[in-house]
Amino acid sequence: MTTQTDLPTTAEAELLAKVPTGLFIGGEWRQTEKTIDVFDPSTGDVLASIADASAADATAALDAAVAVQDEWAATAPRTRSNILRKAFDLMQERRDEFALLMTLEMGKPLAESNGEVTYGGEFLRWFSEEAVRITGRYGTNPEGTGRMIVSQHPVGPCYLITPWNFPLAMATRKIAPALAAGCTVIIKPASLTPLTTLYFAKLLEEAGVPAGVVNVLTTSSSGAVTEPLLDDPRLRKLSFTGSTPVGQKLIQQSAKNVLRTSMELGGNAPFVVFDDADLDAAVDGALAAKFRNIGQACTAANRFIVHASIADEFARRVTDRVKGFTLGRGTEEGVTIGPLIDDRAVKKASELVEDAVAKGATLLTGGKAVDREGTFYEPTVITDVQQGSKILREEIFGPVLAIVPFTDEADAVRLANDTEYGLVSYVFTQDLARGQRMIDKLQTGMMGLNVGVISNAAAPFGGVKQSGIGREGGLEGIHEYLSTKYTMTPAS
Ligand code: NAP
User: Of 92, 163, 200, 472, which has fewest CB within 10 angstroms of its CB?
Assistant: First the structure.
């Protein structure tokens, strides 16, 4: 079913009028001569025109971050904690606004945007709690001749680059631990969805974040703005979330100053369903792992590796459910599938499905772009996908569920690991021993065992292989922004 697009409502216009449009540098909002238009992907309408930073603006932002780094690092952990907690509270008060803003600029249905406000907000609360738990070690060396002190210190000014698919959570997942650790930051959101970060920076200002501690650069020239920052020895850390090719380039650029880097990159998640699985749970998990965020998540299940004896039944059940989805503008009541982010995304989904079908896959539902305004692609299910199909190698980043049958456990493990990525894997089985074997054998940073959604602020999020370096969230997250210092003193 397809619903029609509404004209922007008064509530939308009022919200957009509240969102700052400038660069945020040293506590001031600065306009630029050039601007970038931000579009609603469900209509193609311009939502706002925002500042377009140059390389000189980037250096000004670093100047601002460097100027207050020592002072911010010296604030009491309780002060930093209280500011983050205040930001969490403000986020709850404004949750409807943040949800609507994300739906407008990114397209996901409002219910999902609300879920992201909950998830993204939790990083503020979690790291407000972690800020006061930065500890070290003290002990005697084995020889008994000295005392060893191990302490933790903020790494220094950080540059944070975020993608467009989770406009709020990707920002809070980096800013909150950095601030908790005592680091100042410059954040560069994706030019496709910068409004949420700008509105969030305003919230942080109100929560009491001092001028210069958080700076925001929006730009249409990411490479040109990033280069001077990575070249500047005053910058001490890069945290990037985005595609693997851009991450690889940034790792190379970070070599010059031997920057600390955290890399949250692409995925190609396997979703393995064994013949002993609870099929109802597997179907629910599959729909959540695939269609959340319209398939545009690094954690989205990319390859459904299903035991041959249940593959037809699994395919039938997911297809029935997918046919019941409602496609439309994310602000509309009952919509479950919004638009893809842009034309390129629609083209990519179309090409991957066409390639798979040409190589022998069967199309069960969907399979084409939707003929309406905005960048919509039909929710799609294909089965019997053949090895050699591009869809098994590349991140789909769209609402396409691709099924590959397997016959034995070793085969499932081999298929699941047959990728250069290793972010997340999903496994459905009721056999505990088999579940344990899969934990041991799958090359993955995270695993959903009989669940289709795994993200949580209290968990270490991150990948192995070409999916990244480092972890965000959990007890590990703050350590990405701390460096360890060891001091030796004589035994008294
Ligand atoms: P992308 O094209 O790599 O862009 C990510 C960010 O990098 C954007 O802010 C982009 O800005 C910026 N960028 C692009 N080229 C750059 C350059 N040369 N120098 C500096 N910055 C540059 O990725 P995307 O399409 O936005 O996001 C989708 C990808 O992110 C997928 O691969 C997905 O798996 C991954 N992702 C990973 C995680 C994770 O936690 N592992 C989470 C979410 C998404 P502009 O677009 O404005 O140029």
Answer: 92
Contacts of 192 (CB under 8 A, 6+ apart): 38, 39, 105, 106, 164, 341, 342
Specify whether 383 is located in the same domain as 260. Answer: no
Domain count, the chain: 2
Instruction: Give one DSSP letter per residue of 322-353, joined into a string.
Output: HHT--BS-TTSTT--B---SSHHHHHHHHHHH
Q: What are the beta bridge partners of residue 406? A: 307
Q: Which of 52, 159, 165 to mutate to test the pocket of ligand 1 (most atoms within 8 A of CB)?
A: 165
Return the CATH number at 391: 3.40.309.10
pLDDT tens digits, one per residue of 52-107: 999 999 999 999 999 999 999 999 999 999 999 999 999 999 999 999 999 999 99
> Are 348 and 227 within one domain?
no
Confidence of residue 8 (pLDDT cuts 50, 70, 90): low
Indicate whether 286 and 219 sit together in one domain.
no
Task: Tell how far the Cα of 245 is from the centroid of ligand 1, in angstroms.
Answer: 9
CB-side neighbour CA atoms (13 Å) of 44: 6
pLDDT one-digit tens code per residue, 95-124: 999 999 999 999 999 999 999 999 999 999
Confirm whether 86 is domain-assigned: yes
What is the number of residues in the chain? 492
Atom of ligand 1 nearest to the CA of 246: 3
Give kind and range of the element (H or E) at residue 307.
strand 301-307
Predicted local confidence at residue 4, as pLDDT: 42
The answer to the question of residue 462 being in a domain is no
pLDDT of residue 492: 78
CATH of the domain at 179: 3.40.605.10
DSSP letter for each residue of 240-288:
EES-HHHHHHHHHHHTTTT-EEEEE----EEEEE-TTS-HHHHHHHHHH
Q: Which two tokens stand for residue 74?
A: 């010296």
Q: Is the CB of 395 under 6 A from ligand 1?
A: yes
Q: Write b or e for each residue in 218-248: b if 16 or more Cβ atoms lie within 10 A of its Cβ, otherwise e.
A: bbebbeebbebbbebeebbbbbbbbebebbe
291 and 404 inside one domain: yes
Which residues carry out catalysis?
264
87 and 99 together in one domain: yes
Is the per-residue pLDDT at 3 higher than 50? no
Using CA atoms, how far apart are residues 408 and 413, in angstroms rounded to an integer? 9
| Same-domain pairing of 197 and 228 | yes
Of 162, 164, 461, best ligand 1 pocket probe by most atoms within 8 Å of the beta carbon: 164
Co-location of 366 and 482 in the same domain: no
Q: Decide: 455 in ligand 1 pocket, CB within 6 A.
A: no
Residue ranges making up the domain that contains 384: 269-457
**pTM for the whole structure:** 0.97
